[in-house]
Amino acid sequence: MLRTIDWTIMIVYFAFVLGIGAVLKRYVKTSTDFFLAGRSIPAWVAGLAFLSANLGAQEVIGMGASGAKYGIATSHFYWIGAIPAMVFVGVFMMPFYYGSRARSVPEYLRLRFDEKTRGLNAVSFAVMTLFSSGISMYAMAKLIQILHIFDAPFARLGLPPTWIFHFSLVISALVVLGYILLGGLTSAIYNEVVQFFLIVAGFVPLVWLGLKNVGCWSGIKATLNPSYTHSWLGMQSPHTNRLGVEWFGLTMGLGFVLSFGYWCTDFLVIQRAMAANSMNSARCTPLIAAFPKMLFPFLVILPGLIAIALPTQNLAGLAGTHAAASIEGKGLVPPKMDASGQPLRDQDGAVQLDYDLATPNMLLHYFPTGILGLGLTALLASFMSGMAGNVTAFNTVWTYDIYQSYINKTATDEHYLWMGHMATIFGIAMSVAAAYMATRFNNIMDMLQLIFAFVNAPLFATFLLGMFWKRTTGHGAFTGLLAGTMAAALHQGLTLPQGGLPGVKGGWLAVMHVYPSEMAQNFWTAIYAWTTCFLVTTVVSLLTRPQEEKELVGLVYSLTERPAQQDLRWYQRPAILAIVVLAATLLLNIVFR
Amino acid sequence: MGLDIRLPIGLLFSIFGVLLIAYGALGDSTIYQRSLGVNINLDWGIAMLAFGAIMLALGRRGTKV
User: Fold this and answer.
1) C-alpha span between A450 and A444 (Å, rounded)
2) Candidates A38, A40, A371; nearest CB to B44
3) Would residue A431 count as lying in a domain?
4) Predicted pLDDT of residue A482
């Protein structure tokens, strides 16, 4: 199925990825060069990397899957979720992250609060990034297997097809290891930018062909039920829309707690802005990222919608299908299969669709040899940069916030640079181990992700109070975080999504409330965690001794000078960019309501 | 920092563009049934080459200054 031209494209891309690392190698002399790209990245490069670092498997495949499952309402993850949070972090929070000269998010917590708050955040973050990187690798190797990319060359070489999974894992790990060791964060950022353009180049023609085929947006509207093509229709009750969430849970849970918690506190993305070459570039980084982010639903969600809107056809030759069973799918989305090749059904006897295959099948369906190589390369690139983002964030937090803080405080810069290299190797080795763990123990992975969700949910309350209320104390922040995590666990343990069984889905203590969907349950878990953390932090702060004001200069809003803006052109001013991006997002919400 | 990112991007997209144009122009034209009869390799190859050339030009100008 893949020809020489497809392989050439893929190989040229891999050569470039490593080549960029090799060229950058001579610029990496100090640990700051390696971990922070020497704080020398221009705003637009940092901005695109900020966007791309998050553009891993979850985004490209997951958003296509959600598009096929929930319809255009998936855009809430962008137009209610990401964009407002990205604007907030750029305009209001970046002055403290960048201005404090902290080298990582945990280090900011050390400066603002105390050692224990940093330690908690650093350790939980380090563990989480390794597992996310492993899950990303696992998903990639799985996808390569399903798409039969390496089947032909393996058959020709006489190797067993079961090795394809191992081969995919090892080769991607080696490539990522190679370019990070060579060029550090700069290399990761540059490759993220290349990957951004590659994703656009691979997905624009896909969406164009798909839309041409179904007759544009009006064609999709004519084919599908209105619940697919409206993002706000039926949002007054969780029972009248596809997401199974009502508007309050959506805007507060997703739009406020979860999105702000991710975009404003996750070092994986913040690191890209911290590497920017000036305070203003750092503030503009998330704002510049917000412009393409706003349009990404058309690139990643639309393929899913098109896949489901197409007339069901013979899917033979596409992924995840056996010729006989293809009739049971919908559009290009095949049913999930059990081990015996029969489609899986839910309690009502309806076929369960394998939505994750919506986007890959779109590629296989529309792309002929040649551009197919480009599309698959874009997909692989997105997986790898997701992994690289995690690894670069891990090696920094490990070296600065764990090794330098608790293990070896007085070593030379050379030694920390060496440690960064070691942490990269260790991080990638652990990711591979996590990927294998995901193949064997699916339940453990589900449980870990659940625990991460509990740890992350309250974080934004801590940062919000820390940055905007000078009275917040270290004891307050620490107890608040613990209380918030416990509240999340407690809420999850007492509720269940409809149709779920007590266990990893919740209800492991008792079932006091049943949510109409898992999404609603997640959003409300986040809301409870955030509120608990906010209240506990406030109360404990008021009961403990306030921090000296002179220690907080540059770390808290009321004690920090506003960044100067006089000599900036209008398009360099964060406030103006913020207003433009928010207005455009509002417009998109109205158009697709 | 050292390398202007627009140069490698420009080079990569130019190479991809040339490859796709060559394959679209010279290769088997019966494969375009799946892309609705559009010679997507040729068309998109031209677009990628144009983008690559612009990036190269911008990158070279940026490096000189």
Assistant:
1) 10
2) A371
3) yes
4) 94
Distance CA A214, CA A345 (A): 28
The H or E element spanning position A513 is strand A513-515
Q: How far apart are the first and last CA of chain B?
A: 14
Q: What does DSSP assign to residue A244? A: -
- Among left, alpha and beta (phi > 0; psi -120 to 50; other), residue A387 is alpha
> What pLDDT is stored for residue A323 in this prediction?
46
In a domain, A528, yes or no: no
Q: Does B24 touch chain A (CB under 8 A)?
A: yes
Q: What is the DSSP letter of A571?
A: G
Cα-based angle A101, A264, A431 (whole degrees, multiple of 5): 90
Whether residue A488 lies inside any domain: the answer is no
The encoded tokens of residue A507 equal 């209800």
Instruction: Residue A38: give the domain boundaries.
Output: 1-98+170-309+354-440
Chain B environment of A26 (Cβ under 8 Å): 2
Chain B nearest CA to A272, separation (Å):
15
CA distance A342 to B20: 40
Residues 6+ apart with CB under 8 A from A221: A229
Domains of chain A: total: 1
- CA distances to A22, A48, A377, A472 from A184, rounded to whole Å, are 11, 17, 23, 36
- B48 to chain A, any CB pair closer than 8 A? The answer is yes
Counting every residue written for chain B, the total comes to 65
The answer, yes or no, to whether residue B65 has pLDDT greater than 50, is no
User: Would residue A379 count as lying in a domain?
Assistant: yes
Q: Return the closest-CA partner of residue A206 out of A323, A379, A47, A82.
A: A379
pLDDT tens digits for range A299-334: 999 999 998 888 776 555 566 555 444 456 777 888
Taking only the tens place, the pLDDT of each residue in A510-544 is 888 888 888 888 889 999 999 999 999 999 999 99
Mutation target among B16, B28, B56 for the A interface, most CBs of A within 10 A: B16
Any CB–CB contact under 8 A between A322 and chain B? no
Do A366 and B20 make contact, defined as CB atoms within 8 angstroms?
no
> How many beta carbons lie within 10 A of that of residue A222, not counting itself?
11
Answer whether A368 touches B (CB < 8 Å): yes
Q: Which residue of A has its CA nearest to B47?
A: A201
- The pair phi, psi for residue A337, each rounded to 5°, is -115, 145
Q: Is the CB of B36 inside 8 Å of chain A's CB atoms? A: yes
Collect the ranges in chain A with pLDDT lower than 70: 1, 57-58, 313-328, 347
CATH code where residue A41 lies: 1.20.1730.10
DSSP character at residue A29: -
How far apart are the C-alpha atoms of A49 and A186, rounded to whole Å?
A: 10
